Amino acid sequence: MFHVKDYTTFYQISYAYIEQNILKSIPFHIKKGYIILKWLCETGYFPKTIDHDKNRTLEKYITTYHLKTCFLHELENAKRGNDSDFEVCPENAIESYNLSIQWAKKILGHMGKCFRKGSLPSFFNPSKSLVSYEGMGHDGMIEQDLFLQLISLFEQLINTAAESELLCS
């Protein structure tokens, strides 16, 4: 959302159509890495800020939008680096699962790197950070340690999932 100078109104630009086209154009085993993380984020494993007086959730620390932004950045990095994952057609379900887990780890790695820097650039407007509060009396990322702890929790869950698949195969 952007403020229009000298006016009191705001306007919002939606990139949903572009995001949708990007996600449709990638192989499912890559997209599944993002889907796994999105599912974990939405299952309630992760803390939210609660207003107990009004019994409502105010804020999620790591959102699916953060995950999608990191996923889009990683897709761009992979395409720029001619990543072979776009050419690979997994031969079986285990290979597909392993590639999906690798992508989930790439997304988390990107997110961790951004959180350590204190800024997660918006994919479509990289000059804006999704996690820092520039110009609001304090620059930088609020509760950076908490974000990094949550990334660690995500990584532990993904590693547990990967290990359990190896034990089952």
Q: What do you see in this structure?
A:
The chain has 169 residues and is mainly α. It has one domain (26-168). It contains 5 helices and 4 strands; from the N terminus they run E-E-H-H-E-E-H-H-H. It has helices at 16-24, 28-42, 64-80, 93-117, 144-168; strands spanning 2-3, 10-11, 48-51, 56-60. The strands form 2 sheets. It has a two-stranded antiparallel sheet. A hairpin with a 6-residue loop joins strand 1 and strand 2. The longest helix has 25 residues, at 93-117. The radius of gyration is 18 Å and the shape is globular.
Record keyword descriptors for this entry.
two-stranded antiparallel ribbon; 5 helices; 4 strands
List the helices and strands and how they pair.
Elements: E1 2-3, E2 10-11, H1 16-24, H2 28-42, E3 48-51, E4 56-60, H3 64-80, H4 93-117, H5 144-168
Antiparallel strand pairs: 1-2, 3-4
Helix pairs in contact: 2-3, 2-4, 3-4, 4-5
